[in-house]
Specification:
By secondary structure, the chain is an alpha+beta fold. The protein has one domain. 39% of the residues lie in helices and 12% in strands. The chain has three helices and three strands; from the N terminus they run βααββα. Strand 2 and strand 3 form a beta hairpin. Helix 1 crosses helix 2. The model has no long low-confidence stretch (mean pLDDT 88).
Length: 66
């Protein structure tokens, strides 16, 4: 079974956006993502990516390690 979690590059490919666009959306809080530690790799759940592509806002805050 495939994981429901995507890296930035995978999310960019799936959404047909540039990876810098995905990163910008994560940093602005437009796209919900998770990091295990500060400056760590982002992981994005496919459902959150689909919401972002449809133009819907996330309901929770983006979790970033401090």
């Amino acid at each position: 079974m495939d994981s429901p979690w995507l890296t930035v590059d995978e999310a960019a490919t799936r959404s047909r956006r540039h990876n810098k666009t995905v990163l910008r959306a994560l940093r602005r809080g437009e796209l919900r993502g998770h990091q295990a530690r500060a400056n760590g790799r982002w992981l994005i759940h496919v459902e959150d990516l689909d919401l972002w592509v449809r133009g819907e806002r996330p309901t929770g805050r983006t979790k970033v390690a401090s």
